[in-house]
Amino acid sequence: MRIRKYDFDYSRRVFMDKVAKGAAGGVLAPLWPTVANSGEVTKAYPDELLSIEMYTKGKIKPGDVITSANVDVVKDLLDPICYKQVKEMNRRIKIKESIKDISKMFNHRYLELTLKNAGRAKFSTDGNLWTDGKEGDIWVGGMPFPDAKTAQEACCNISTSWGRHDYSQYVIPCWSVGPDGEQAYFHNLIWFELQTTGRNDGEIFKGFKDKLRLNTALFTGPNDVKGSSFLSVWYYDQRKFPDLYGYFPAFKRVRQFPTNQRFEPLVPGMALHLTDAWGAGDPMLTWGNFKIVERRPMLGPCADNWYAGHHPNWYAPFHGGPKGKTFFDKTFELIPECIVWDSEPTGFARAPVGRRRTWSDARNGTMVTQVTYDRRGELYKQIEFGTGQMKNDVTEILDADGYPDWSWHTAQFHDIQSNRITLIRHAREADGYKSLFIDDGTAYDKFMTTSAVARLGQ
Description:
- By secondary structure, the chain is of the alpha+beta class.
- It has one domain: Clam (outer membrane lipoprotein receptor (LolB), chain A).
- The protein contains eight helices and 21 strands.
- The protein has a 15-stranded mixed sheet that branches. The chain has a two-stranded antiparallel ribbon with strand order 3-4. The protein has a two-stranded antiparallel sheet with strand order 12-13.
- The radius of gyration is 21 Å and the shape is globular.
- The mean pLDDT is 94.
């Protein structure tokens, strides 16, 4: 039987061939050269990868809601824990049209640098990232590997600059829900993130060439953890663990903690661990055995998904689970190509995780979802991110250049073995702090030193 070149399975065969050959993204044309020329992904993919209605042959269309009644139609487009959430836990997912305009999937300056510096990122023999492959030449900014061909390149796209801004200050309400569907814990977390190298402004912050970022996590509520804070000093050398300092009001002093214990809750009751941040919460080279498993379409919450902008403090409704409190309302779209890659925690002798599988959106390199497996190979945990422009018909957050800003909106961390889930949301303000992306020159002294951590807790 003769196989037609452009039949419905053409994309699947192309993806398989690309994985075997270690080729970059795109089906009908190379993805990032197409993006650079047109600003869109349309010419890189056939229609059935940009239309959920065509992909499902009319069974699902934009505006529909995925429920337990129809989830089997799109089972191959979901991670195994998301499928279980919909099939067994009454999760509902609204479907929208796929984004084709690449500018809606980035903050403006980061996208400009990604296009400008494409092709300049290289790994040295020790696995670290350098500009043009010259050891000592700090990465000049933007997504290092927009046309990622290996799993390590896909990981580097996430770990090099988490929030893709030079400075990010997030107000994060955190709901932790027990297996009975009731809220077991609520925390207010303020997350400060200062990029020292690979910045959008082209500078090296305070000359810290040996550092990658500074990151402080401050809990402002409830009272039993209020004032607890943690400072992580990240090294540019991704073989080194960050220096981790913590302050607890009960002890009234800053302590240095071991940083290889990254698979434990920041505070009791949360399913969020240090290793989970952005799906790449550890130095890249403390993980190994990187491998691309496949390239494939995927459903995920990655653009035009800012329900929260309709609420004064950027909140969104809950639904699902035994009490209607287990999941945020979210809208998914058909992502034409995800890079599905595995890695193992080679730098952690006692890690409860044996393997993690990450789905990276080939269009912008962000993590869509991640599933980890325990040492026995059993499903352990899901991390699901929702990202996109901070813009809707009610609210618009603009960057310093007047463009709609981009960030993460929601995330969920679901321990499937205990059936405990922590939901976090990017909120406008809480406890005297506001979410923002501009450093007025005081952030380092206020939030990024050990003395600052002690002051925050008092």
